[in-house]
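Suppose a colleague, Dr. K., hands you the sequence of a protein chain of 173 amino acids and asks what its three-dimensional shape might be. Before reaching for any lab equipment, you can write down a predicted structure in token form. Begin with the sequence itself:
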Amino acid sequence: MTSLAFAFFTPQMWSHVPIEDPRAAKIFDGHYSRQSPGEDGLVAPGKRFLLMHEGSAGSAIWAVVRNRWKAPGWAKGVWYWRNSIFRNVSSTRSSDLIKGAVDVTYELWGRRYGLPLPAEGLTTEIDIEATREHRSPWHEPGWCYKKAGWTHVRDTPREHGRSAKSIWKAPPP
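The predicted structure, expressed as tokens, is then:
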């Protein structure tokens, strides 16, 4: 008796690209967090990388950075590991892109910077007001992250010139 085994090829959803990739910069220029469209500098300094999705129906970018945030009066600061940019200008569902990006992030981070992964876990912040017009009125900020398996951590209030944010944490690998 013979048995058949099938191996299906799944195309790679995300590609690792140089941190200053001009194609990614063009996508980022339309993101609400972009302060100076056309300028260099897509991702904050630190351990970082940039992923890009290019399909027949559009593109998306995903950036990850680990760095120390120094608040006034703090001697050492606090480490963060975060998805600092996600912008989807394709017809691919954002939650599917996020799931794929998280998998690639964990794999690529381990190869580039070693294991274990950062103890603080991968997070993201979503500007509640800036994303209001881009999401359904029935969905909370971060809905696509929620559908991708992320956990809502908390919302931060608007204060001292900073906008209110919704903080989310990625599922563990």
